[in-house]
Amino acid sequence: MQVMKTFLRKYNKLIADETIEDYSLRYAPKSFRTFSELLIANTAIGSISFLALEAIGAGIAIHYGFTTAFWAILTASIIIFITAIPISYYAARHNIDIDLITRSAGFGYVGSTFTSLIYASFSFIFFALEAAIMAQALEAYFGLPLSLGYLLSSLIIIPLVFYGITLINKLQLYTQPIWLIMMIAPFIAVIIKEPEAFNIVSSMKGTISHGSGFDIYYFGFALGISLSLIAQIGEQVDYLRFMPPLTKKNRIRWWFSMLIAGPGWIILGFLKQIGGIFLASIVLFAGYSLSEAKTPIEMYNIAYTYIFTNPEYALVAATFFVIVSQIKINVTNAYAGSLAWSNFFSRVTHSHPGRVIWMIFNISIALLLMELGLFDVLEKVLGLYSNIAIAWIGAIFADLVINKPLGLSPNITEFKRAYLYNINPVGVGSMGIASLISIMAFTGLFGDYAQSYSSILALLIAVISAPLIAYITDGKYYIARENTLQNKEETHYICQTCNHTYEKEDMSFCPLQSAPICSLCCSLDSLCHDHCKIEHEKGFRVIIGNKISTLFRGRISQQLALKLFDFFIITSILLFIVWILGWMTYSINIASIPQEHRLFVKTMLRDYSLIIGILMSLLSWAIILVQDSKNRAEELLEEQKKELEHEIKIRLKAEQMAKEGTTAKAEFLAIMSHEIRTPMNAIIGLSHLTLESSLDTKQKEYLQKINTSANSLLCIINDILDYSKMEAKKLTLEHAPFELSTVIKNSLDMVEIAAQEKNLSIKYNYKNKTGKLFKGDSLRLSQIFINLLSNAVKFTHEGGIALTIEKISAQRMKFSISDTGIGITKEVQKQLFKSFEQADGGTTRHYGGTGLGLSISKQLVELMHGNIWIESEKDKGTTLSFEIQLEELKQEYTFHSVSQEELQAIITEKSTKTNSFTLAQKEQILQELQTVLLTKKPKQYLPIVQKLKEHDFPPQEKEKILRVIMLAQKYKYKEAIEVLNA
User: Fold this and answer.
1) Which of 413, 620, 804, 976 is most buried by its number of CB atoms within 10 A?
2) Pairing, β 761-766 against β 800-807
């Protein structure tokens, strides 16, 4: 299985803070849903304050008369109520917004991208309408120009929506009482003070229908306009997703709140539309114009004159009421738009800058629509929009109410990208067919009555075609793969990509990363190319390609067939948009065009549409070719990536084998060194004791050579073992107090005999005042000294060797070893510190050695945070200098002996240490102990005792070592060496 390397995704503050982000692209978790059922219901009902309802009701009645308007609004309200029930239930039960419901209800992951646009357009269309109403109020009272009023009405909403549901809850809660009172009060006043009010309303004639009675033809148009409000359920659902879990304890409150906040909005919506008709008739009765009768500020201004005799007070009250109402609804419109755009762009661009960014984007579009005069063409816009919105909601309704109960779709609510097909033909197909036919009917292609009832056509076609397509496809395009996390006991998982913890419902298992990831990270991943469901998606495309190829009798390849299919889809969408824009432009402006010029304008629009259509077709093909090139490039990159991953695997395997080889070599060397060192230590120790006994000259000479050779061999073994440890990166340094002068003297003692044999002088001097005590690894420092001094003695035939000690600072020391030997050329100096290197091939034969001494010294110096260098000329001697970090101790440190009681306690103590000695470390301890015994320095036993305390050591070996130390502290060195080498 291919596994992708994971990079930690970091979100900006706008996304990371969920009090701002409100889980805009994901499931709302239980931990965030701490609001009460009634608070959520109150917040959702607060969004019904929009005065566009009054304007819509008034507009319908003015055009088609009261009776037709009343029955159209009532019928639309019943349809909206029925379709909203299952959508509201699923949102509140599964805590997901309208976009996520759409994904799961037959549209697929990418298919719901289209509906996100529909929902986003609903939010900015109604935001523009509501802000325009507010701007009219500002103009009426303050005299503020409409253009500035539009801007102010937009900007005031941004800070209120910034903190999402948390702040909106408070806003709706505090403004609800005053809003309800100010909305109801003028109606009561008009009814009380105007006895003929109901007669005035009921006798209201339509300017288009030319009557007040019921007209079956115009009923369809009126119904379509009112049905455009069907998408409002999306905004209600945006709040319902924060409902607490349904339990036996709260079931009555839960169901009541769900019904009131969800489908219940249209009850108040129906009353407000009828109220708009009522107020419009009063405005007309007062002698105002038809355009003023459709304007909410004028409606409520006239209504408030029935409360206040002073017109100024009435205008103040009306203005205040309009501002409060429009703020209450536009926080919802802006909030809903931010969610819709977030969902849309997260799938199109695989990026998410944050809900707040898309809120500002949504408000900007609404502001542009206001400046273009949207309010003036309200009915045309809503009539066209309703066809698409109804087709969308109808498809969702059919899936939830028909497909799921009949088993035509899975009885689960799955919204995550990882488990959904990109396109599900059930929802996308039914909505597409219903939208296309209804819009064509709306433009008059199928006759007058089809045009009038285009919205009902959209609903019926969507509701019928959704189960039909589900039946034909056997419902196999809902779930692309099984959700393996759903049935596990864990309730929370950590996202592999962003490293945050989320509830199980918001998590998916990613095969590419072999770990759970959250739904947002899954949505934003642009590199995986749906790796987890690629076979299923390919299967769907293959079927389409094969069908098209069959139509052409196999004369075109499957790839070309898919290109033609894509070209047809993209071109159709673009041409449809061009056609709609052309039709809307003509329909909106036809009233202002003289009769004799209308044919010319119509022909011109047709010709322009044809030219634009041709350009759109070329653009479509260019898009397909660019996408094809991109796909090919990505495939090539994917192949190269796989090759690189394969090469990396080979290299990692080789590296692992090399590591294993190094480890095996180190273990082998440790074992061999143990096998060699044990007899070697015995030879050195016992020959040393024998040399101190009564011997003749010949015997002493033989034993001296044995002892020297054994020491030389031991040095070689130590060098090889140290080199293997360095190669395996396992060499560590100690940090213990020591006397520098003692280390220097002991090191000089080690080479003194060899120097005397060649009549060489050895001296040392301190260049400046140096402290006595230092903290570091005295053994390794001594090793460096001995390596460098041994080399100096080895390559010097006459003269002498000098060691210079210089204090650089309280933390650093410099040491230089100079000799009067054979020197080294510049060329050879470059290779000098490399492993197994000598000055030339003859050097090894003449002087011996492994070539490891200087390499080991260099690495030890670097471990001590220092550096080493050489200065030399051929036949003029050599100076090797090194500078290391060495901490000088200011206070005195006493090297005391270890008491017999302490040693006995260490022997009898049961080991609880977790640090075990390796074979090599054990040999190092034994060698250190042998060196201390031979040099007769009893105060150097303490570091060895300390190591035995800190590490686990075999009991028999520990007892033996401590017995040796006991003997040495009594100056019984001979017995101690015999025990050590027994």
Assistant:
1) 976
2) parallel
* DSSP β-ladder status, 800-807 and 773-776: unpaired
CA 571 to chain centre: 36
Beta strands in 636-747 (DSSP E): 736-739
Residue 316 main-chain phi, psi, to 5 deg: -60, -45
* pLDDT score recorded for residue 801: 92
Torsion of CA 387, 389, 395, 401, to 10 degrees: -120
Burial 489-516 (b: 16+ CB within 10 A, else e): eeeebebbbbeeebbbbbbbbbbbbeeb
Please give the Cα distance from 574 to 397 (Å, whole number).
28
Lowest mean pLDDT, pick from 237-246, 766-775, 872-881, 945-954 = 945-954
- Is the Cα dihedral 379, 380, 382, 383 positive or negative? positive
Contact 817, 879 (CB under 8 A): yes
What is the token pair recorded at 186? Answer: 């003028």
Please answer whether residues 856 and 867 qualify as being in contact, where contact means their C-beta atoms are separated by less than 8 angstroms. no
Q: Among the residues of 294-371, which ranges form H helices?
A: 296-304, 311-349, 355-371
Please tell me the distance from the alpha carbon of residue 975 to that of residue 982, in angstroms, as a whole number: 10
Asked whether the predicted pLDDT for residue 74 surpasses 60, the reply is: yes
What are 190-205's pLDDT values in tens digits? 999 888 888 888 888 8
Alpha-carbon distance of 178 to 970, in angstroms, equals 100
pLDDT of residue 945: 59
Both structure tokens of 251: 């079931």
Residue 936 predicted with pLDDT over 90: no
Q: What percent of the chain has pLDDT over 70?
A: 77
Considering only CA atoms, which of 563, 562, 565, 564 is closest in space to residue 542? 562
Residues 28, 34: Cα–Cα separation, whole Å? 11
Sign of the torsion angle spanned by Cα atoms 362, 363, 366, 367? negative
pLDDT for the residue 360 = 87
- Say which residue, 813 or 974, is predicted with more confidence: 813
Q: How many CB atoms lie within 10 A of CB 82?
A: 13
Least confident span in 201-210, 697-706, 718-727, 854-863: 718-727
User: What pairs with residue 738 in β-bridges?
Assistant: 774
Strands 501-503 and 507-510: unpaired
- Burial of residue 10 (CB within 10 Å: 0-12, 13-18, 19+) is exposed
Which pLDDT band holds residue 951 (cuts at 50, 70, 90)?
Answer: low
Instruction: Give DSSP secondary structure letters for 56-100.
Output: HHHHHHHHH-HHHHHHHHHHHHHHHHHHHHHHHHHHHHHT--HHH
Note whether 14 and 356 are within 8 A (CB): yes
Q: Check pLDDT > 90 for residue 182.
A: yes
What are the CA-CA distances from residue 254 to residues 90, 111, 260, 261 (Å)? 13, 32, 10, 10
pLDDT band at residue 536 under the 50/70/90 scheme? low
pLDDT at 79 over 90: yes
Give the pLDDT confidence score for residue 747 in this predicted structure.
Answer: 83
CA-CA distance, 693 to 696, in Å (whole number)? 10
Q: Determine contact, residues 980/926, Cβ cutoff 8 Å.
A: yes
Closest by CA position to 128, among listed 381, 330, 385, 389: 330
> Six-digit token pair at 486?
């759903």
Reported as a pLDDT band with limits 50, 70 and 90, residue 28 is: confident
Please name the amino acid found at residue 306: Y
Distance CA 298, CA 875 (A): 112
Query: Residue 592 and residue 345: Cα distance in Å, rounded?
Result: 39
Report, as an integer, the average pLDDT of 887-906: 60
3-state percent helix, strand, coil for the chain, nearest multiple of 5 = 70, 5, 25
Q: In the structure, what pLDDT confidence band is assigned to residue 2 with cuts at 50, 70 and 90?
A: very low
How far the first Cα of the chain sits from its last, in Å, is 59
Residues 6+ apart with CB under 8 A from 859: 726, 731
- Which residue's structure tokens are 């497909």? 403
